[in-house]
Amino acid sequence: MTIRVLPPHIARLIAAGEVVSRPLDVVRELIENALDAGASRLEIEIESGGLGLVRVRDNGAGIAADGAALAAVRHATSKLEPDVDAVERVTTLGFRGEALWAAAQAGELHLVSRPAAQVGASEVQAHGEEVTVRRTSAPAGTTVTVRRLFAQLPARLRTQAPAAAEAREITVLVGRYVLHHPGLHWRLTVDEEARLTHAPSDHRGAVASVYGPLNANRVLRVQADGVCGVISGPELTRARRDRMHFSVNGRPIVAPPELEKAVLEGYAELLPAGVAPLTVLDLQIAPEDHNPNVHPAKQVVALADLAGVAGRVRHAVQTALATHPLAQARTAPALSLPTPPHTPRERANFPALRLSGVFQGLYLLAEGEGDLWVVDAHAAHERALYEHFARELGAAPPLELPEPELLHLTPEQTARLAERGAELRGWGLTIEDFGAGLARLRTLPAALAALPVPRLHQQIIDSALGDHPDPRRDVLARLACAPALKAGMLTLERGEAVLAALNACEQPWSCPHGRPTTLRMSERELAHAFGRRGTRDVARGRDETERVGR
Questions:
Q1: Which of 328, 339, 425, 541 is deepest in the core (most CB within 10 A)?
Q2: Are 144 and 111 in contact (CB under 8 A)?
Q3: Which residues pair with 367 in a beta bridge?
Q4: Pfam families, per this entry (predicted)?
Q5: How far out from the chain centre does Cα 323 lie?
Q6: Is 219:208 a contact under the CB 8 Å cutoff?
Q7: Per mean pLDDT, which range of 54-63, 449-458, 518-527 is the poorest?
């Protein structure tokens, strides 16, 4: 198609302002340009987190010589017809004509492009409003290079993330495009090191490239009207929804909560509460029924019939699960409670509680300081286990595995290992990069090595190399949750032990995930609830303390 500058009234409808605020934005825009050009092979290179260099090379349709001079002009595009109706029927990933212009404003843009049928290639160099075009020779396709990003914008440069963090985010971004475009060749190189490679395959193969073959072996194919992709079996879940991926007409999106909820509803009772599956779903929506022009980075789209799309997703997930024999993984909890520390600890005025009873096999009813206390036994047990693990973590030398365990790491986990390796070794977890997406687990903290937790090693690795800013805390919190008392397991004897363990905690008021462990009710609150206005309606317990304090 011919590149043309959109008329002002069309440009006003789609203008997004600045679309390049970090290297990640440049990578996203250039990938989308390559996909729009019909490329079957994409090679992405970055240096210094993308601030030094971003290069995307593709074998797509290329830019004809007569349109090269307009490539870096704002609102010059071949992807949108210059009429108002076209804005309502966007069929490409890019359409605003701002990407190359914005990259040239923020850095030094160099573009070389040749359509397969054209003799000779066009070379464009642009920085700010200065654009030069010349003829050159090059293979068919397009190579776009952006150097020295924000070098002339010192205030913007100072606010950029560290190079390693930006490289990790770019790796995640490229991984998402791989998941939703599995039929293409992909290669990501970070500082001259191959970080992610993928050969053409299906969605299962893309999951293997991004998340490892172990995860790929646990996914089920989804194929329904307007919905295709893969979902994991109920034995492969995570505590977060960070691996629930959706695309609309090939565009990776930030999914509306309704779509995530539809997937979870599709699993119904096969999925425990509070966990999410690995999901890669491609949605096909009529161009007039979705609007990608509601977000500067086009990551959020508006759907005309969101409820209908969610219904199709729910049905597709149910159908995929119905065709496979499924067994829900059960956790065998450890009922032992940690021994309180010998040294008295500051307990932030936590009272000694006297157990009165058990409600619904999960809640403890207790008395203390003249009030009624309701204790969530799971949250309390979780807090006690967490603090016990924290005390014991460095008390013994790390346990060296007799045979190092070989692990498959995602590109994102590999990037985090390079950042956190020394920190993890400091508390007994030794993971060695083995190359090609592999790593060896050599040592474990002795306090964690024998826990009766399913897939213990995998859970430790997922937390230690996850996106939580404090991997030590995330590891301990996850491992404290698995063996903690569950509903129906509570007895009076265990309740007494839970109260004793909670009383010995340094921070007894919440579990390590932030949920409260206790609910306190004064007798006066109960009297008011029952409409009492007699001798029982007097300040006692907490109410008396608050009255005296005033």
A1: 541
A2: yes
A3: 354, 372
A4: DNA_mis_repair, HATPase_c, MutL_C
A5: 29
A6: no
A7: 449-458
- Tell me the C-alpha to C-alpha distance, in Å, between residue 462 and each of 195, 279, 465: 19, 17, 5
Tokens 């090693």, residue located: 457
Token readout for 225 is: 């009207």
For residue 271, the SS3 value is coil
Measured from the Cβ of residue 401, the count of other Cβ atoms closer than 10 Å reads: 15
Residue 543 confidence class, pLDDT cut points 50, 70, 90 = low
Q: List pLDDT tens digits, range 217-257.
A: 788 999 998 999 999 887 788 888 999 999 999 999 988 89
Tokens of 490: 């509570």
Main-chain dihedrals φ then ψ at residue 249, nearest 5 degrees: 50, 40
| pLDDT at residue number 545 | 61
Task: Enumerate helices (H) and strands (E) in the chain, giving the number of each.
Answer: 18, 26
CA 172, CA 419: separation in Å to the nearest integer? 15
Coil vs helix vs strand at 367: strand
479, 451 Cβ separation under 8 angstroms: yes
The confidence band for 525, taking pLDDT boundaries of 50, 70 and 90, is: confident
243 phi/psi in degrees, rounded to 5:
-115, 25
Tokens for 203, please give them.
């969605």
Give the three-class secondary structure for 168. helix
Closest CA to 21 of 129, 155, 114: 155
- Chain mean position to CA 59: 30
Interval 106-165: pLDDT, tens: 899 999 999 999 999 999 999 988 999 999 999 999 999 999 999 888 888 898 999 999
Does 330 have pLDDT greater than 50? no
Tokens at residue 113, please? 């492009």
Q: Torsion angle of alpha carbons 171, 173, 175, 178, nearest 10°?
A: -140
